[in-house]
Each structure stands twice: as structure tokens, then as C-alpha cells.
Amino acid sequence: MYLAKIYVTYKPSILDPQGEVIKSALTRLDYTGISQVSQGKYFEVKLDARDVEAATAEVKSFTDSLLINQNTETYRFDLSIVNEDEATL
Amino acid sequence: MYLAKIYVTYKPSILDPQGEVIKSALTRLDYTGISQVSQGKYFEVKLDARDVEAATAEVKSFTDSLLINQNTETYRFDLSIVNEDEATL
Questions:
Q1: What transmembrane ranges does the database entry give (chains A, B) (predicted)?
Q2: Is the ipTM beyond the 0.95 threshold?
Q3: Which of A18, B40, B72, B84 is the most exposed place for a label (fewest CB within 10 A)?
Q4: What top-level class would CATH report for the domain B2-81?
């Protein structure tokens, strides 16, 4: 059983209005050292696969097709092997 | 300059309807090995701080107060040192 942790962020050229809003809120709250904030999405997916290569291919395939918007977002992921009995992600 | 990568997930006892919807969508798309999906949020924050301890304290403070809902969400984060000139997160 594999655990994929997938981090989705906007592509560098895409405006991130949420990040900008959070940055101004933090500045108003006197967190003055903050120079950049970006908000993305984070997925944890548990999957069965034959081997690491098959798991990697599957994660790429479903992330491209379902989890991200390829026009505006990019992603990276880590894969780890987990015990089937671990209930919590 | 520090870069904090903050991963926000639901607490284990909290229902994650988005994760459930994504899991059923993936199953319908013939990704049959998937046993659990959870969706969370991911933040990248660049900040100035005196040292690692100060940066850690600041990240904890603003994450608790602004970025998460402490009733339903939990988080972890990594801190790394980055060059001020790196424009992209």
C-alpha cells in the first residue's frame, strides 16, 4: 500500500488572490516580516499498486486528469510505503 | 529569509466530504486501487525572522490564529532557509 502526498500550487505566472489576501491580513495583524504567501491544495491518497513505478504512473495519471487544472496549476508529490492497518492518514 | 511549507489536514475524527467525492470519482474512472483520499490545504509563506526559533514561533502563531480552524483542522510544517533573490515559491 502506497501513500501519495500531492502538493498542488499555482504556476508562477498565475495570480494568487487568496495568497495576497492572506498576506495583507497577516501584515494587518502585525506579522510584518512576511514577504510572500501562496495557497495551494494538498492531497493524501492511499493506493494499492504492483510496485513503485506503477504507483508513480497512477498518481501522475489521476492527478493530471482529475486533481489539478493543468492550465493554471502545477504539482509535485512524494510516495511512501505504508502499512495497510494504519487507519489515519 | 525562511520558507515555511504548511500542510493543513482535517483532524482524524472529522468527515472529509471532498476526499470522499474525489475517491468515488477516481473509482468511477477505473482507478480501482484507491482506498483513501483526503484533501487539505497547503501554504507557502516567505518570512524574515531573527533565527529559526523566531521563525518557528511566528509560523505557529499565525497558522493557529489565521490559517486553520482549530476545531476541525490540524497542521504540520517544514521550515527552510531560502535566498532572498529567489522570486518563485
A1: none
A2: no
A3: B84
A4: alpha beta
